[in-house]
Amino acid sequence: MQTLSDNTYTGVGVSPGRIIGSVRQMPRAVSEPPAGERLTHESPEAATDALRAAAKSVQAVLNDRAAGAAGAGRQVLEATALMAADPMLIKAAVKLITAGSSAERAIWDAAASVAEMLHNLGGYMAERVTDVFDVRSRIVAELRGVPAPGIPLSDVPFVLVAEDLAPADTATLDPAVVIALITSSGGPQSHTAIIARALGLPAVVAALGVTELAHDALVYVDGAAGTVTLNPGADEHAAAAAWATTAASLAEFDGNGRTRDGHLVPLLSNVGGADDAVKAAAAGAQGVGLLRTEFCFLDRDTEPSVDEQVAAYRGVFDAFPGKKVVLRTLDAGADKPLPFLTDASEPNPALGVRGYRTDLTSPGVLQRQLSAVALAAEDSAADVWVMAPMISTAEEAGDFAALCTAAGLTTPGVMVEVPSAALTTEAILRHVEFVSLGTNDLTQYAMAADRQLGPLAALNTPWQPAVLQLVRLTVAGAVAEGENKPVGVCGEAAADPALAVVLVGLGVSTLSMTARALSAVAAVLASVTLAEAQSLAALALAASSATEARAAVRAHLPILHDLGL
Ligand code: PEP
Ligand code: MG
What we know:
This protein is of the alpha/beta class. It folds into three domains: 8-27 and 150-249, Phosphohistidine domain (Glucose Oxidase, domain 1), CATH 3.50.30.10; 44-144, PtsI, HPr-binding domain (Enzyme I, Chain A, domain 2); 267-409 and 489-563, TIM Barrel (Alpha-Beta Barrel). 44% of the residues lie in helices and 14% in strands. The protein has 22 helices and 17 strands. A nine-stranded mixed β-sheet has the order 1-2-9-8-4-5-6-7-3. Helix 9 packs parallel to helix 10 (306-317) and helix 20 (530-542) runs antiparallel to helix 21 (546-555). The longest helix is centred in the first third of the chain and has 25 residues, at 44-68. The chain binds phosphoenolpyruvate and magnesium ion (MG). Phosphoenolpyruvate (PEP) binds next to strand 11 and helix 16. Magnesium ion binds at residues 389, 417, 438, 440-441.
């Protein structure tokens, strides 16, 4: 996928925007010190002093960062800072040093014992395991004199370059400091891409070679074209300045998604919790098309209690009184493991016990989640719908609907993200009230291409005519079922303004996306009639490749160029 021509790296553009900034490389993960490593300092006392100094300095850095952060990011940092000075942790490490271990190995092993103990205590204590491991890596990095793991600290804005980013890396990502994301790996459906769009940051993924870019190198990032240009010239500076104006003019969405001739297409938002929901409501979202409930509990080792779940869901419902909120039950597995539901040793997690399938291996969790949803919905003003991820058969849809009915939830639906579900939508809709196309996974499974792998990014795009055919068949299944049940899209495809037009032309009824994309999608949708959208859909379906489909459709949407999208 990647080529380096002159001074330009080419990858895949996953979040529009044109920006110039200097590079900071994401530090590499800290490697484990060799097992049994013996003292490397001249004495146990010297090693102990070095360890204490390293822990102190890690704590000071984290406290500094916490002071400058807000909300959830601040809490994460404060909790980690506390752990860095935890007397139990340091005492356990000093004991190992006294017994002859190196300082690095001692903190490594001490942290493992503390983590195990916390894990066994369960509840809130078990939640701290992540902090222990984070602190351990930071202390080892400090002892080695290498950069600390995680997003680099900086007083000036920078372009973050990484191999890939995990959801946890981005907890403290401040879009005022990180102004663009570039990764050498990852595809258009990867979490880096999803996060970049959510934060409104220009982003290019699968740009091989960018991890070699020097610290402070000046680059121009074009998140629509998918290019990164080293040492930008006058043209790039002009394009970046023009984008700054465009971004300001794209800020508004009037809360009424429609085509030019008035065909209504509610534009909903994808959210991961109450904070997102409040922002989405402020951005004009007409409801929530996907509440990724696993995002509320990504840092958890243990199943959240019903009360905790009620509080988390209620926060989202309260942001949308009188509006539809589609809650998705836990989609644990593959790139979103939850230790209390998934087995980290599965050989092929994307095809494993994931999403709805975890009900097979952890019975009870889903029922408890549905009870929590019902309780949260009880005296909420939101119109609560609930759907299951990773449904493969009509039988599974029927079983899920029965669980919803038992919990007192009246609007069950399922995601269509496995090709078998797209091919059997008519049968599925005999059991449930709606379907929602998860084009991220639908693409990965239709193309047999892991959504996280950079080298497969060209396969892994929802512009693939085969994926568009599956969308068409899903809509056809809903029409054949005869009760006019809604077919939404909540995958990243809905956030691509040109593709959103194609999806509407294919007959989908709602589009759900990151709040940041609402205004651009609304503007482009409002530039076409429904008939025009339908002919653009036909054009895309008839194309012989994803590249051709995208180019053909974009050529008919001049507004994209005007808006710099
Ligand atoms: C999808 O697969 O398109 C989807 C919306 O779910 P997720 O990205 O959370 O897997
Ligand atoms: Mg999915």
